[in-house]
């Protein structure tokens, strides 16, 4: 086999959602790679859509305005211009919110991402392999990779850009309802809600963005039955401000070193913002913008406190609901058709055709019983099951290349986004891109942070290529 210096560098990217596709796109733009030497393993047809933007459900919408969604962080209106140039909203009369901002269907952003990346697939710079990567072994400084069809390739760098596993259903539900025709353990799957009837009584476990999406999708499909949503704190994702606001506050000039200190600073900023006629949204937007520096300035113990105690509160303010989706929930609540509970599922039984659930309310610890016809789980990513979610990750973990980050939010990685194993050693040719790196880099669950981190990883890879491949370095300087 020729040496890597003779063949040129090969980068294999596992996962072709936004993170993986963006890494590949920005790598291809460097001009450092030969035809086909950037390989993306992604079973889906569309590169760049992934789990988040592969939705075919018309009720699912991007949850930030289109002018703030872009593959190019320095050009935030790029997606909006692409929409205009392609008349992409011709069949989406409801995309414009009352504020005037556009919230297109979520799948459209996946189409945009795919269109951008396909330019490099079309000219051969990126090779899209529609298979799952199953095994990876490092031999003589290179990665020997095998996919689920038994095909093998050799790469110099490996980038893990997969997402978190699907939500794990609470045990009382999983053990009793497995196989039930109207138990929806993963509502992100295509047509997952198709089995729910118009008058079915529905329990939704979880109150975040996915829960709001389910309510909107059911409403668009003509559902008129009662809906109960439940989560431990009963917190629902919030909506957008009535008008555009500039970020407010400063959390970096005198940084805090504790979780409680950060909360106090945020509350004080919200109070100050109110005196200037601004809402809490402006403050949270500033925290988000400064999030990576804030997060990385905190000791690991304080990061753990935030992940354990504050993340639910952050999530409902940070991840906002599109106005059209928010209206579906608000209308259901106002009509008395939907109620929101703080509590948990204590027990489940199936009696005749009904699903009987015992719900323990958080504040009073009182038990109530309700009958449902369908149950939908929307509890969010299964952080604890990352290493068990696919053979590639479990295999790399068994070999000592991967470990869970100390915060429990993703995979451990260095400040250069290199994977860190349980012994604390980084592997310079193995990178983590996207949400699985959030334990180190903080806010990595939404745009533009995801695309910014993709550029960061692409830049680190380019530096490694220029340092380790003299022939490429000479050509790059010409």
Key words describing this protein structure:
478 residues; alpha/beta; FAD/NAD(P)-binding domain; seven-stranded mixed sheet; 15 helices; 16 strands; globular; disordered N terminus
Main beta sheet: 7 strands, mixed
Number of strands: 16
- If helices are DSSP runs of H or I spanning 4 or more residues, what is the number of helices? 15
Poorly predicted residue ranges: 1-5
Determine the fraction of residues in helical runs and give it as a percent range: 25-40%
Which CATH architecture of the largest domain is right? 3-Layer(bba) Sandwich
Strand content: 15-25%
Compute the gyration radius: what is it? 23 Å
CATH topology of the largest domain: FAD/NAD(P)-binding domain
CATH class of the largest domain, anyone?
Answer: Alpha Beta
Mean pLDDT: 93
Shape annotation: globular
How many domains? 3
Spatial sequence of strands, sheet with the most strands: 8-14-9-10-11-12-13
Q: Tell me the name of the CATH homologous superfamily of the largest domain.
A: FAD/NAD(P)-binding domain
Instruction: Report the end-to-end length measured between terminal Cα atoms.
Output: 28 Å
Class computed from helices, strands and strand pairing? alpha/beta
């Amino acid at each position: 086999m020729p040496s890597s210096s003779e063949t040129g560098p090969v980068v294999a990217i596992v996962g072709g959602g936004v993170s993986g596709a963006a890494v590949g796109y920005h790598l291809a733009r460097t001009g450092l790679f030969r035809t086909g030497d950037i390989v993306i393993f992604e079973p889906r047809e569309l590169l760049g859509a992934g789990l988040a933007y592969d939705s075919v459900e018309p009720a699912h919408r991007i949850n930030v305005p289109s002018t703030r969604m872009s593959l190019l962080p320095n050009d935030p209106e790029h997606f909006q211009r692409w929409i205009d140039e392609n008349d992409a909203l011709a069949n989406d009369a409801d995309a414009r919110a009352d504020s005037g901002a556009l919230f297109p269907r979520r799948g459209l952003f996946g189409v945009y991402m795919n269109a951008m990346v396909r330019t490099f697939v079309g000219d051969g710079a990126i090779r899209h392999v529609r298979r799952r990567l199953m095994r990876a072994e490092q031999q003589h400084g290179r990665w020997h990779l095998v996919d689920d069809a038994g095909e093998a390739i050799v790469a110099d760098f490996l980038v893990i850009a997969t997402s978190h596993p699907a939500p794990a259903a609470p045990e009382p539900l999983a053990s009793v309802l497995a196989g039930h025709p109207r138990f929806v353990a993963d509502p992100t799957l295509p047509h997952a809600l198709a089995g729910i009837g118009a008058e079915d009584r529905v329990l939704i476990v979880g109150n975040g963005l996915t829960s709001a999406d389910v309510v909107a999708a059911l409403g668009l499909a003509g559902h008129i039955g009662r809906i109960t949503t439940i989560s431990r704190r009963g917190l629902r994702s919030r909506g957008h401000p009535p008008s555009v606001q500039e970020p407010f506050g400063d959390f970096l000039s005198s940084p805090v070193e504790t979780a409680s200190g950060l909360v106090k600073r945020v509350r004080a900023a919200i109070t100050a913002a109110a005196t200037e006629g601004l809402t809490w949204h402006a403050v949270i937007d500033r925290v988000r913008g400064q999030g990576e520096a804030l997060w990385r300035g905190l000791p690991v113990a304080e990061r753990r406190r935030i992940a354990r105690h504050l993340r639910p509160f952050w999530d409902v303010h940070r991840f906002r609901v599109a106005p059209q989706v928010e209206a579906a929930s608000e209308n259901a609540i106002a009509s008395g058709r939907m109620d929101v509970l703080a509590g948990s599922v204590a027990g489940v039984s199936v009696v005749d055709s009904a699903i009987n659930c015992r719900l323990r309310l958080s504040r009073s610890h009182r038990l109530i019983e309700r009958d449902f016809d369908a149950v939908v789980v929307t509890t969010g990513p299964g952080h604890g099951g990352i290493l068990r979610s696919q053979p590639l990750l479990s295999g790399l973990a068994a070999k000592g290349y991967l470990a869970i980050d100390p915060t429990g939010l993703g995979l451990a990685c260095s400040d250069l986004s290199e994977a860190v194993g349980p012994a604390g050693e980084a592997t310079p040719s193995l990178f983590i891109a996207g949400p699985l790196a959030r334990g180190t880099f903080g806010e990595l669950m939404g745009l533009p942070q995801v695309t910014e981190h993709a550029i960061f990883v692409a830049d680190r890879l380019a530096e490694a290529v220029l340092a380790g491949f003299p022939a490429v370095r000479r050509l790059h300087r010409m």
